[in-house]
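User: Please predict the structure of the protein below. I'd like the answer in structure-token form so I can feed it into my own downstream comparison script.

Assistant: Understood. Taking the following sequence of 78 residues as input:
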Amino acid sequence: MTAIDQTHSPDAPSQPVLPPPARLLRLPEVMARVGLKRSAIYQRMSEGSFPKSRSLGPKCAVWIEAEIDDWVRQVASL
């Protein structure tokens, strides 16, 4: 049995499944995903009802994709 066959063998020890790396979203993509305009996103952030952005620099705000996805699921379940 080759090394490749061993990794796909049912007897091979299972490898831990790692989550995909965190993806960062810029404002236009966040707006497209959630259906809100910029002002509504920032208003809800200040109210604490929307995920906070992270600053990567003086003119670069990003959101973590998983947090946006969780927020969408939460809103959809209401």
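That's the full token string. The CA atoms of residues 26 and 62 lie 5 Å apart.
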